Amino acid sequence: MDTSVAGFFVTSLVIAMGLLSWARPSGRVSFFSSKENNLFLNRRNGKAGSKQTTLKELCRTATPARCDLNPLLFNGHLQTCWTTVKFDDVPVYYKRRIFEADSEAYKGHFAVDFVVEPYKAPKSAEATDAERKYTLPSGLPERTAMFSEDEFAALPSEDSKPMLVVLHGLSGGSHELYLRHVVHPLIADRGWEACVINSRGCAQTKISTGILYNARATWDVRQVVKWLRAAFPNRPLFGIGFSLGANILTNYLGEEGDACQLKAAVLCANPWNLEVSSVAMQSNFMGLKVYSKVMGANMKKLFEQHADEVVKNPRVDAEAIRNITYLHEFDRTLQCALWGYPTEGAYYRDASSIDSLLSIRIPFFVVQAEDDPIVTVKAVPFQEIAQTPYGVMMTTSWGGHLGWFEFGGGRWFVKPVTKFLNMMAHEIDLDTPPVVEKPEAVPGRTSSLQKDAAVKEPKPAAFSPMRQHCE
Questions:
Q1: How confident is the model at residue 453 (pLDDT cuts 50, 70, 90)?
Q2: pTM for the model
Q3: How far apart are CA 253 and CA 245, in angstroms?
Q4: What is the structure's pLDDT at 456?
Q5: Is 120 helix (H, G, I), strand (E, B) or coil?
Q6: Which residue intervals make up region (Disordered) (predicted)?
Q7: For all residues of the chain together, what is the average pLDDT?
């Protein structure tokens, strides 16, 4: 068949299917949360009778009633694949600071990109890291420059603006479009501040040791949050994670528990149960031959960029890594070697965040698409979210993996995410701790039977959501 004819046929077919999908009803929006327990939040300057609200009410209010997406992208595969098309530009400017890890176990360096006012591309050697001390030979990402020492010294502030801490997805960085779609409207009027924690080796950064990152690499997040708390003592801190970054953030929140310094968090397209998601992805053609293959290639590229450091680990077989094709093969060959896991299954089970959500003790909002081809709906924590008053999960029947593209190029998920964050930051009294309706029913809490020495009945078994995670 002539290529022009074939192209016309494919284009016509897509348009025809898109036109037919106009008859498709709006994507379904569903909410999942504890039916027996509530988290009460105090409103700022609440009038009589409206001083309190619940997390459930706030999340529903933040979410549009309809999920109207681009009818030409009428399923999860099309929504997901469209994320690779760079058709629009969302200008967010960053200044980068390289942090030296304070952990003895996980030594190295990582980059944090702080959102700043727009600036002209600098030419100084310091701003561009001309010597490539911290940056890969291809240079810094677009609209990103290094802080000068004077600029960074002047960064701490006594202001009380809300600040968002952002974690990107697998092999991504602060440059990712899905991330900038959320950050841009928040910073548009300078009402928010934000920073992105780049995973080690990502976003054009060099690594200084053989340590990259994995799906439960929470140590750099913990260090940055501590630094932010000291540098900006009056700013309420919020967190958001995308895809693998959501998994890492969930693990961090669970590890911190009652001591968490963040006021609230948003978790977008979290893979939750990594083993279930991996097996599901391997079980169908698109999952294995498209998504797993592409992600495996991205991780191989990341390895090659840092191979000189990574191969210093005697357990790393560089040739075996170069021969892998799929993501699970990469995890089996490199991640298991780096982190001491016997199998990729052991790694997935340990790094999964599905149990960690039960230890979270701050309000959190989960956003998932049920047709996400990378995060199978079988991995989504429907049962777990029903056990905690601290979280609400909103799912849409349509949206793909970090897609949710609307007609015209906007992304629907930005609306509930930014409204939730703005409501938490500006309408809720953050100085008053949230109140759990039935604290004895929260997983991980010590039961009244265990506390009361006078009770003669045997102590009930208690589940510790974080117990299984290795140190």
A1: very low
A2: 0.91
A3: 12
A4: 47
A5: coil
A6: 440-471
A7: 91
Indicate if the pLDDT at residue 7 is higher than 80: no
pLDDT, position 409 = 85
Which residues are designated catalytic? 243, 372, 401
Give the number of other CB atoms < 10 A from CB of residue 449.
14
Beta bridge partners of 396: 29, 369
Where residue 186 falls (left for φ over 0; alpha for ψ -120 to 50; beta otherwise) is alpha
Kindly give the pairing relationship between strand 29-32 and strand 391-396. antiparallel
Q: Return the closest-CA partner of residue 373 out of 299, 292, 297, 298.
A: 292
Tell me which amino acid residue 55 is. Answer: L
* Residue 109 β-bridge partners: 100
In the β-sheet with 29-32, what is the strand arrangement from edge to edge? 29-32, 391-396, 364-369, 262-268, 237-242, 163-167, 193-197, 109-116, 93-100, 144-146
Alpha-carbon distance 408 to 68, whole Å? 12
pLDDT of residue 449: 35
DSSP result, 83-99: GG--------EEEEEEE
User: Domain residue spans in the chain?
Assistant: 67-273+352-433, 274-351
Q: How far apart are CA 206 and CA 201, in angstroms?
A: 5
CA distance 351 to 150: 39
Tokens of 375: 């995060």
Q: Which residues are CB-neighbours of 470 under 8 A, at least 6 positions away?
A: 350
387 contacts: CB under 8 Å, gap ≥ 6: 34, 358, 443
Backbone phi, psi, residue 239, to 5°: -125, 150
